[in-house]
Amino acid sequence: MTLIAAADGSALGNPGPAGWGWYIDENRWASGGWPRGTNNMGELTAVLDLLQQTAGVEEELLIYCDSVYAINSITKWMPGWKRKGWRKGDGKPVLNVDIMKALDAAMQGRRVRFEWVKGHSGHDLNTEADRLANAAAVAFKQGRTPDAGPGFGNSPSSAATGRSTESPGYADQPDLFGTPPDEASDLDRVVELERSLLTDEVRTDPAALAALLHEDWCEVGRSGRLWNRDEMLAELGPLAEPVELEPLSASRLDDASILLVWRSRSPHGTALRSSLWMREGGDWRQRYHQGTDES
Q1: Among the options 49, 128, 130, 175, which is catalytic?
Q2: Any idea what the CATH number is for the domain that residue 269 is in?
Q3: Is residue 8 among the annotated active site residues?
Q4: Calpha distance 114→123 (Å, rounded)
Q5: Which among 8, 188, 194, 219 is annotated as catalytic?
Q6: Judgement on whether residues 22 and 134 belong to the same structural domain of the protein
């Protein structure tokens, strides 16, 4: 038999109030988070807590994740980092090393498979894990402790309490995205930044919005209008209706530019969109955006 679960993470502001969650069924789930963290921290910790709480399970464990970064970190890159003394190929220390070491220990002797699933695509388990992670992040934003959940039936781990905020390996760690360790984390970062542009938290904060738009930013809108950066900063405000982002592809053009193609969904309809992101000052800023109504 195979035990099947989904794990997900969330961060409001990235970094900001952050949460994680894993879900098997209505009787077996858990969530937690920190007052400040990143989406990738949530993704990794959701998997870690799931592994820790199911440590006594003999069955194979299948984990659905919508983060390529989390899957590759555990299944591809971690063995090499460990051999190099937890350093990356460029000799720099692996970020989030405490979580990585804990994941390495939790994977020992386990039969675990990971499968990528597209986020927000109607996958039942992923939807539940996403809901738990988001709810935990919102709880920390509001100054509340999230519901830790029933867990797997064992004593809840320190992470599952939702109050593990003092460990240097978790909330006190610098932003995981500060110096992306690999291409997958760059692509994940761009998707998260694009998604943040669809939040009222960013759209109503001129400073936060300006930090995400390149100095030479421009957009060809769905109406065909050409916008420049100053016009957008002056006009943008809260969304009139909720918008969902569905990534379709992300392509690295060179070391400092990524082209993201995605679909927006709202009560108004769907549109195909493309965004050019360029790395500036250690992080990514949107240089160009275009949207076209989908027939």
Answers
A1: 130
A2: 3.10.450.50
A3: yes
A4: 15
A5: 8
A6: yes
